[in-house]
Design goal:
Distance between the termini: 15 Å
Radius of gyration: 20 Å
Number of helices: 2
Low-confidence stretches: 8-22
Strand content: over 45%
Mean pLDDT: 87
Largest sheet: 5 strands, antiparallel
Length: 367
């Protein structure tokens, strides 16, 4: 299929930009798969992350990469072709990538907290003061600048803060979504969005209710995104909110506010069938109060649990299996929710790992 939009534009720019490294990249030689490993890799593929490792499950086998992911509750991402899973270490600001087929581990110092799958096996991240950096995990070239960016003024005026960095938070063939943070320090921040397309950079501004802790996921149409975040009322309490935004028109649709005196929304997913799910935490505004976590789905009357019991994360169900992280005991309001990874298949229930924070899977079109 002929490349179009953002993908076609960046293919040309990437060919002419000079290579500029972003620190050393640890990328060992790729081992070859045996016939048995090839067969195992043909099974279901998904990934999970704990605070200390990234793992890919491929059929009956699991490959792992150590990492200092710490407090981050971000999901595990896959490259657009589904050949690599990756996550960002919060401690070292390093991308850790794990090959699905061969278990190869790549570490990319990026000075970033988020990265996105751009095309094929290419991952991308933002580097100040204005570059989209890339690296092809299937190749041998070091990180390189893909595009120089000068962000226009936000249509939402600053409200007493100053700019405090930016991150790439989601990507499609048409747009890369960037969140630029306005901060006064401590817990106060506001997120200003930009849609970076092939021919223009569209300043979208702030989305009401999506101020702090913004996370995003692409919708099935290529130009709409689902956003999750919170509006803080104090250092200990805020309201979780979810919205969709059309990058082409800047049309925003607010979804119902999450229940609970204090709440937070994160890790949104927008499935091909149109369903939107988010991870949600809620807690009372009391010192040292515990928080409850569950994954919720947008419904006609608000938000409904995706399952019969609380889960930290759950991948879209298939006729063959259900993959979920069953929630454990309540955590502190600022704690990192985690649970037991359970796979249901053919009437059987198997526990694969504990202390699991998040899940990820290739998109159905990946291969």
């Amino acid at each position: 299929m002929k490349a179009s939009g953002w993908r076609a534009r960046i293919a040309v720019i990437g060919a002419v930009l000079a290579v500029a490294g972003c620190g050393g990249v640890d990328k060992p030689a790729l081992p070859q798969l045996t016939p048995a490993e090839e067969q195992a890799a043909k099974g279901a593929v998904f990934a999970y992350r704990t605070q200390t490792e990234l793992a890919v499950v491929r059929g009956t086998e699991t490959v792992r990469a150590p990492g200092g992911f710490g407090y981050s509750s971000g999901p595990v991402s896959f490259t657009r072709d589904g050949h690599f899973a990756f996550a960002v270490e919060s401690s070292s600001k390093t991308i850790v990538a794990l090959g699905v087929r061969d278990g190869s581990v790549t570490r990319i110092p990026c000075e970033c907290t988020d990265a996105v799958g751009l095309r094929g096996s290419v991952v991308a991240w933002w580097r100040e003061p204005g570059q989209i950096m890339i690296m092809d995990l299937a190749g041998n070239e070091p990180p390189a600048p893909e595009r120089e960016i000068v962000l226009p003024d936000s249509p939402s005026p600053l409200t007493g803060g100053s700019w405090d960095g930016a991150e790439l938070v989601a990507a499609t063939d048409e747009y890369v979504l960037l969140a630029r943070v306005e901060s006064r320090g401590l817990w106060w921040e506001k997120s200003h969005l930009y849609a970076i397309g092939a021919e223009a950079i569209l300043p979208l501004g702030r989305v009401p209710g999506i101020d702090a802790g913004l996370s995003a996921a692409a919708g099935p149409d290529g130009h709409t995104f689902v956003l999750a975040g919170a509006t803080a009322r104090s250092a200990t309490c805020g309201s979780g909110n979810v919205a969709t935004i059309d990058a082409a028109t800047n049309g925003v649709r607010a979804l119902p506010t999450l229940p609970g005196e204090c709440s937070a929304a994160y890790s949104p997913r927008w499935s091909a069938d149109g369903s939107i799910t988010i991870a949600a935490r809620k807690w009372p505004d009391i010192t040292n109060a515990p928080s409850m976590v569950d994954r919720l789905q947008s419904a006609a009357q608000g938000w409904a649990p995706v399952g019969e019991y609380p889960v930290v994360d759950m991948l879209p169900r298939t006729p063959e299996s259900a993959i979920e992280v069953v929630a454990g005991e309540p955590t502190a309001a600022r704690g990192n929710p985690h649970g037991v990874l359970v796979v249901h298949k053919g009437g059987a229930r198997e526990e694969l790992a504990t202390q699991v924070v998040s899940l990820g899977a290739p998109t159905p079109a990946a291969g």
